[in-house]
């Protein structure tokens, strides 16, 4: 499974929504149930699924999926996000 597929799966699991399609500009504004608790659940699930750790500042400063992808590229050392 690629990193992007894992991220999609985490979003689908956290929000209990198999129809989520992520784009770089996808954000909390796109979901009424994306609150601070869901944001923390995303952080913990991504850490567990991808074997990365986020500082609170890193994760709380993200405003959309594109920024999350950039952060994951930096943490995983993957220029192509494969």
Task: Characterise this structure.
With 82 residues, this protein is mainly alpha-helical. The chain has one domain: Orthogonal Bundle (Non-ribosomal Peptide Synthetase Peptidyl Carrier Protein, Chain A), CATH 1.10.1200. It has four helices and no strands. Helix 1 runs antiparallel to helix 2. The protein starts with a helix and ends in a 6-residue tail after the last helix. The relative contact order is 0.20.
Please count the beta strands (DSSP E, at least 2 residues each): 0
Class in CATH? Mainly Alpha
How many discrete structural domains? 1
Outline: globular
Q: Which fold name fills CATH's third level, the topology?
A: Non-ribosomal Peptide Synthetase Peptidyl Carrier Protein, Chain A
The chain-level structural class is mainly alpha
What portion of residues belong to β-strands? Answer: under 5%
Compute the CA-based radius of gyration: 12 Å
Characterize the biggest β-sheet.
none
What topology does this entry show?
Elements: H1 3-14, H2 36-50, H3 56-60, H4 65-76
Helix pairs in contact: 1-2
Characterize this entry briefly:
It holds the Pfam family PP-binding. By secondary structure, the chain is an all-alpha fold. 54% of the residues lie in helices and 0% in strands.
């Amino acid at each position: 499974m690629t990193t992007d597929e894992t991220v999609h799966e985490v979003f689908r699991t956290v929000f209990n929504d198999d129809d989520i399609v992520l784009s770089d500009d996808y954000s909390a504004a796109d979901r009424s149930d994306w609150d601070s608790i869901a944001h923390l659940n995303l952080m913990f699930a991504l850490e567990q699924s991808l074997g990365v750790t986020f500082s609170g500042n890193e994760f709380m400063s993200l405003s959309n999926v594109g920024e999350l992808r950039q952060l994951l590229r930096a943490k995983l050392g993957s220029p192509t996000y494969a």
